[in-house]
Design goal:
The complex is a heterotetramer, with two copies of chain A (494 residues) and two copies of chain B (166 residues). With 494 residues, chain A is of the alpha+beta class. Chain A has four domains: 100 residues, 3-Layer(aba) Sandwich (Rossmann fold); 70 residues, ATP-grasp fold, A domain (Dna Ligase, domain 1, 2-Layer Sandwich); 248 residues, ATP-grasp fold, B domain (D-amino Acid Aminotransferase, Chain A, domain 1, 2-Layer Sandwich); 28 residues, no CATH class. Helices cover 36% and strands 23% of the residues of chain A. In chain A, strands 13-12-9-10-11-14-21-19 form an eight-stranded antiparallel beta sheet, sandwiched between helices. Chain A has a five-stranded parallel beta sheet with strand order 3-2-1-4-5, with helices on both faces. In chain A, a hairpin with a 2-residue loop joins strand 10 and strand 11. Chain A starts with a strand and ends with a helix. In chain A, 59% of the residues are buried. Chain B has a nine-stranded antiparallel beta sheet. In chain B, strands 10-17-15-12 form a four-stranded antiparallel beta sheet, with no helix packed on it. The radius of gyration of chain B is 19 Å and the shape is elongated. With 166 residues, chain B is mainly β. The chains are: A alpha+beta (494), B mainly beta (166). Chains in contact: A-B, A-C, A-D, B-C, C-D. The interface between A and B is large, with 60 and 68 residues.
């Protein structure tokens, strides 16, 4: 059993890990950058230490500083959360070298599965289908053209050096290759410091379906069910659910079998996710393994009743998995909306700011994982995810109804959010029917402007006049708190 | 004081009499307003129908009406008169601002262009991603306020559109 | 299927019912007294109508006004919540007479089970044990003394005219009878307008265990599991959990069998609860039937995955129960803390006020049912319950750990609450071991003053000085918002 | 300015220097304070140990320190001096007030009585229940401020106790 853990992350995932630790009686050490001094994870932890300035490279990515803090404060383990250093083999290695436990797969596993070409080789070696294309990174456009002509369009370009959807491009015809190559290789260089790209045959109308796995040091591996994450924009997931609406028992069994083979071949330990692209005919190809806890893990927790973070910590402490495969039972349906500080109607442009109105939903079947409070400052420097609203029901219809109800209750003011997107999708006919694939967002967003009924219009007009009068009546009030005042100021400047 | 209020695509005229009563389109509407958060969050009951209104912020300001987000602006008649025709109904202006600090990689339109809603106006590189700044509505580009290659602060004005009938 | 329902209640239970309706696509009509104009249930409903002033008799208890409002707004049904008119047979009758559906058992059932003597007769007639004592109400102390001498002490006096723990007295010796009789009969007169009392043999170290049932109009009845509600103060429940720590499969089966017998004999319809007192030897006696939804219903919802309010509405609409008894599966353990606006350290004195600091918990396994927001006014006129924090886990240990974590996250300022009580009990050894009965609170509360460690003391002292300086520096600030200022004022008046 | 701070059963002396530094019991303690809600809610890190402090309200004021509620009072030395011995450490006063409007059915103690903590001082009938008003601490009854049979408002002073050594 662990007694003290350093949480090398921030935001809702740091809060999530601290909650699990507190429930298990494990003390926690939080770390923070200067802009996060008042963040919730700092206040919830038992101890907290400043590790640098806002830029990730100056704080949450400082391997040496993190390891040194863990060591000095008497921690036995480090939980990386997701993002930041969670898939960084050097960090896992540095933690291990200091005699501490890394809560995740060891550096060797991170290294082999972190390389997309190596991961594809492992999958192919155990008979799991991979997309046609290059096994090795390509660095110039001429070589790329040759591969594309051989594989056939549409093709997908993706950075060899990193994941998360950054720098990916779909190319549907040979004449678009040059432009797409330039864009993708540029973003790859910016994001991962490496311009090389992989080339894959792109599957039209594919669904992004992933399988959650959990493995212990003794080599036991369990699968915990799939998540359909096809509702994506620029390969960024926006909604995830389980069971996948298109996944039947046969497909689920095949995906689980593929995930177990890859995990065993890679000598996987701790929680991880195998991502697949499922074609309309039910065939699938392996995409990659996320060697960490995922943002969308609560969906699986609600369906299985398992606490994945608690299990990560137990496995990391050397415990065996406390249940057999046939003891993993999934109940009902669960769905997650990732609420982000992004303006959904303006192309999902991220925008930090201060949360100055807030109501989070609760009640039957609703869970919220977030680090938001009234007054919370959402910095520009980090991932724009601000809250995960998760709904559970006895079936998909009940889970969706609860999510719709919860989204209606959710109120976030002070910065634009993705909430209009989520509200729209949860009521949209194709989504409600489970008819969607990775092209869904492009086809359904943005929708026409929403319409209000007469009474809603009158109510809004009355409130607007009261707000305008309040601004007028109290010109000395803090103008930063009044969007009306800001609009008036901008007007005056013209 | 009379106000012209734009709620999403609709325009409503509200008159606030000195005694505090509000007339909507010239008639008395049975309503009951209470402030939940000063000047930000209200409960409004209109003829028995219960509505929750929240002013979320933004420019132009966004409001949440029950479960729907719309852009709402209220302008009093004096300001309207001062503006003249330019900002009267049908000629609303839309400012496109940088939502975060970044590098303006490209500007795709020129002043005088008429663009459709959601047309890409400029590309902003921020948070290691290229973000398209899009037109919030169909309109004519009245002004381009930043040039490609510039580093821009959060909130910096990039372009101004004015409504252009289709 | 119902299309529109009037919710004849306020507070968290009105919010709970509106949530279920919204998920089911049923429109809702809220009613409110003048002090509740800005309450959450008014804002969450589709329509809202003022029905009177603060005193319950002038608003939430006005049968005619409620029925008239339901009729005029085109409602098909009325949900009474709990408390107020939920167990009032006249209300159920008035609703039915207007051609509307009452969401609960019909007036005839309410009438027979609402009478404690009649309920005891029904139970006895189907072989369910009842406490020794009087079947009929007693009105004078001389008659009472005769009964007590025959039954033997300790005995329990309780009002014949109503429930909820008001006016109950335990008498352990003959010489205490006169005093107790005077107190109980007085409270019974005040609370229920009827001074008559029932006399029962009191079971020492009994546990209050109740069985949730659900019945449809076709006469099908299901039992959904027990709740142990022994943690009570003055017969007011403070904590409830399922499974009962002392309930084994045999006892559960016997309680379920007793509940089903009573429900069938009473021709029960809709949701209800049979309350029992279980003696240390596992024998039990029937107490009463609560002919309504109970405050603690979420505990059963978390364990079974069922939505009791949705099922109430479906049964009320004439639907058959959608599951067989063997499809009711209970998972893990669930526990509820009733957070009240009562000063736990001052004998649970209720105290209304404005909530001016608020953080409700969330995350894995936590559900909160409440109508609280920052700024919410908690009126003195109604039940002091302000939030129900409910935790679910794979076993009792996990549920308790999650509850402890959630209570730590919960922050309510501006009025005293029961939170110190709940935090204490959840960490107290006897409770954690499941060793408790209805005498628990008397034996364990109040505990010695809690102690802080050195760093907590320093942190608190620093904050206190900053608060004192802030009050000093800004004398013009709203004094109502500063407890320091209030203390200073009181000081000045001496 | 020097402050005498009572945190639950403990007393701490804090000195605030004009430059804003705080000395605790005369020594510099490594601490970092941030206000979450002005004058109500703080994050305080003491030697790496993270604490959340909230001023809940009440009289005497209650504070939540992490997961524990305690009574906390901070009195500056000038006020202390003005009060004289009466309210110095060990002689704190406790006011018992009506927590809600109601009828004072009975008063069970007299001025001068020494009562134990939780002793019933008076019975208040409110919300159809009889509620005992209890002693918040062991002490001597300095004053009885209301008589049996009186209707009292919420917050009305019922009795004043002063600490009495056991």
């Amino acid at each position: 059993m662990l007694h003290k853990v350093l949480v090398a992350n921030r935001g809702e995932i740091a809060v999530r890990v601290i909650r699990a630790c507190r429930e298990m009686g494990i003390r926690t050490v939080a770390v923070y950058s200067d802009v996060d001094r008042t963040a919730m994870h700092v206040r919830m932890a038992d101890e907290a230490f400043l590790i640098g300035t806002a830029a990730p490279s100056a704080s949450y990515l400082r391997i040496e500083r993190l390891v040194e803090t863990a060591k000095r404060t008497g921690c036995e383990a480090v939980h990386p959360g997701y993002g930041f250093l969670s898939e960084n083999a050097d960090f896992a290695q540095a933690v291990a070298d200091t005699g501490l436990v890394f809560v995740g797969p060891p550096a060797s596993v991170q290294r082999s599965l972190g390389s997309k070409t190596e991961a594809r080789r492992i999958a192919a070696s155990v008979g799991v289908p991979v997309a046609q294309g290059t096994m090795d990174p390509v660095t110039d456009v001429a070589a790329a053209r040759e591969v594309c002509d051989r594989v056939g369009y549409p093709i997908l370009l993706k950075p060899a050096g990193g994941g998360g959807g950054k720098g990916m491009r779909i190319v549907r015809a040979a004449e678009d290759l040059a432009d797409a190559w330039r864009g993708a290789t540029g973003e790859a260089q910016t994001a991962f410091g490496a311009p090389a790209l992989l080339i894959e045959r792109y599957i039209e109308h594919g669904r992004h379906v992933e399988m959650q796995i959990l493995a212990d040091e003794a080599g036991e591996v369990r699968w915990l069910g799939e998540r359909d994450c096809s509702v994506q924009r620029r390969h960024q997931k926006l909604i995830e659910e389980t069971p996948g609406p298109s996944v039947d028992d046969d497909l689920r069994a095949r995906l689980a079998d593929a995930a177990l083979r890859i995990a065993r071949a890679a000598r996987y330990v701790n929680a991880g996710t195998c991502e697949f692209l499922v074609a309309p005919d039910g065939t699938f190809v392996f995409l990659e393994v996320n060697t960490r806890l995922q943002v969308e893990h609560p969906v699986t927790e609600l369906a299985t009743g398992l606490d994945l973070v608690a299990l990560q910590l137990r496995v990391a402490a050397g415990e065996r998995l406390p249940f057999a495969q046939d003891e993993v039972v999934r109940h009902g349906a669960a769905i997650e909306c990732r609420v982000t500080a992004e303006d959904a109607r303006a192309g999902f442009l991220p925008a930090g700011g201060r949360v100055d109105l807030l109501r989070l939903p609760s009640g039957p079947g609703i869970r919220v994982d977030s680090a938001l409070e009234l007054g919370t400052w959402v910095p520009d420097e980090y991932d724009p995810l601000i809250a995960k609203v998760v709904a559970h029901g006895r079936d998909r219809a009940e889970a969706l109804a609860r999510m719709r109800r919860a989204l209606r209750e959710t109120l976030v003011g002070g910065l634009p959010t993705s909430l209009p997107f989520h509200a729209h999708v949860l009521a949209e006919a194709d989504f409600v029917a489970g008819r969607y694939d990775t092209g869904y967002v492009g086809e359904h967003w943005p929708p026409p402007e929403p319409e209000l009924d007469d009474r809603q219009t009158i109510a809004a007009a009355i409130a607007a006049v009261l707000a305008a009068r309040a601004t007028h009546a109290h010109p000395a009030a803090d103008p930063a708190r009044s969007p009306w005042a800001a609009a008036a100021r901008a007007e005056a400047l013209e | 004081m009379r106000y012209e209020v734009r709620v999403g695509a609709r325009t409503v005229h509200v008159e606030a009499s000195p005694d505090g009563r509000l007339l909507v389109e010239g008639r008395v509407v049975a309503h009951e307003v209470r402030e939940i958060v000063p000047a930000r969050h209200w409960s409004v009951i209109v003829e028995g129908s219960s509505h929750e209104i929240a002013l979320l912020g933004g420019d132009p300001p966004r409001m949440r009406v029950d479960d729907t987000e719309v852009v709402v602006t209220a302008v009093d008649e004096r300001t309207l008169a001062a503006r003249g025709d330019r900002a009267s109904v049908g000629g609303a202006r839309h400012e496109v601002r940088a939502p975060m600090p970044g590098l303006l990689k490209a500007v795709h339109v020129a002043e005088g262009d008429v663009v459709e809603r959601n047309a890409a106006l400029a590309t902003l590189e921020a948070m290691k991603m290229e973000n398209e700044l899009r037109a919030p509505a169909r309109g004519k580009v009245q002004r381009i306020a930043a040039r490609a290659g510039a580093k821009v602060e959060s909130g910096a004005l990039i372009a101004v559109l004015v409504d252009e009938p289709a």
